[in-house]
Amino acid sequence: MDIQGNARFRPKSRYSPPRHKTWSSSCKAIKRVLRPDLIPRIETEVNKLIDAGFIREVKYPTWISSIVPVKKKNGQIRICVDYRDLNKACPKDDFPLPIIELMVDATTGHEALSFMDGSSGYNQIRMSPKDEECTAFRTPKGIYCYKVMPFGLKNAGATNQRAMQNIFDDMLHKNIECYVDDLVVKTKKREKHLADLQIVFDRLRKYNLKMNPLKCAFGVSSGKFLGFIVRHRGIEVDPAKVDAIQKMPPPRNLKELRSLQGNLAFIRRFISNLAGRCQPFNHLMKKDAPFQWDEGCQNAFESIKRHLLNPPVLGAPTPGKPLILYIAAQERSIGALMAQENKEGKEKALYYLSRTLTENELKYSPVEKVYLALFYAIKKLRLISGADPVKFVMSRPVLSERLAKWSIVFNQYEIEYVPQKAVKGQALANFLADHPVPAEWEISDDFPDEDVFSIEVLPAWTMFFRGQREPMVRGQASSSCHPKNKC
After folding, report:
1. Which of 168, 345, 473, 476 has the most CB atoms around it within 10 Å of its CB?
2. Closest to 367 in 3D by CA, of 408, 324, 403
3. Which domains does the chain have, with CATH numbers?
4. Are 18 and 159 in contact (CB under 8 A)?
5. Residue 280: predicted pLDDT
6. Residues of the chain below pLDDT 70
7. Verdict on whether the full-model pTM lies above 0.85
8. What is residue 393's predicted lDDT score, i.e. its pLDDT?
9. pLDDT value for 282
10. Handedness of CA 298, 445, 270, 231 (dihedral sign)
11. Alpha-carbon gap, residue 423 to 487, rounded angstroms
12. How many degrees, rounded to 5, is the angle at CA 245 between CA 243 and CA 247?
């Protein structure tokens, strides 16, 4: 194998990817005092960067940033530069990063996978010559600036992603997925995997890109990609994340509870009925509420830990098959359940979600709450389904300002409205609405692991139905069909 990396390689001139620019004016940070025992180690790291051709000495720069030595696990230090002031002066590069959930989902169903990580990935892109001195930083040896793109710059990720997409443009989403400097080569049939690898290696060699051999795995059936374990059969939670929760002691204050909340939010797609399991925590999250970790909280905490002993394996929806979305709107909450029929004709749950209503949303009319549930599901799942009241209201020529705003989003999709039929699926949607995720548990759409596409779990409860529609079953059911299929 000739695609290997070396942390001290010198970038060659035959590859000219997009040069990184800062678009900044000038600023000089306050000089920081360094511990005397760190100075020799910092000088050693600076010499390594000089030998690698990453930095050069500079005089009279208009921008000067301070360094922050960070200790590694092996006891050595890494020189980080505090570019906060520089980043504030730089306009944001809006080049879009790929959606992590879609990329992870696209890796399932392949017999052979190869995972590669760039060797000093950001440092393989050159800085724009006129912007090199903007990256200047103080060291005990003097003032230096980067000739290559360093870590910590505001738009470094966007620049790297733009370069990688230009390089692998004809291969993306076919036999390769790329997120910044993380690559995965995927092949449906194992016997064709070497041919795909050869194409990728030729492309890497053409543009003089280096991979870190210590972080590469070739021709495997599973591996870690963007924080998940991907396999031929589906997606699994990273055991390290589960282990962190298993070893976590009961929260003693609100800060520790929020830490637990963040860990659960990251893997919530793997936990069925997370909102119901976390109900005992809700009263602790209220403003000015005393923090009293009672028996109910402890039982809920232990229940979550037991569930994570055997976490489920997620799959991807089958393309071309109709997706069914059940939505429910209660007085103080909304819920939704997305399902899809499998080969046996049985509905399989793909995604559960629910949340409580805000103070303003509590004032909505019942129809507006149903609309809100549909809008919430569209926003989270990027998929669309309909319901009878929605069909009726959408046909009206005059809508309220709020409904008109939401209808603009709905009109982007081909919606087929169907009446409620499946009582079981609707009852599950109602259950989720009755056991919502608290509003303060909502996380940003940019947060990785935001959406779930398919879930396979052991039943957490038993439900019985008499096979007929009951007046007590509330909410609406809806179905979305692929344009090429008939419902």
Report:
1. 476
2. 403
3. 27-228 (3.10.10.10), 239-307 (no CATH), 323-480 (no CATH)
4. yes
5. 83
6. 1-32, 272-273, 275-276, 315-316, 348-349, 382-487
7. no
8. 52
9. 77
10. negative
11. 18
12. 70
Question: For the chain, what's the residue count?
Answer: 487
Q: Residue type at 418?
A: V
Give 237: exposed, middle or buried? Use CB within 10 Å, 0-12, 13-18, 19+.
Answer: buried
By the 10 Å C-beta count (0-12 exposed, 13-18 middle, 19+ buried), 438 is classed as: middle
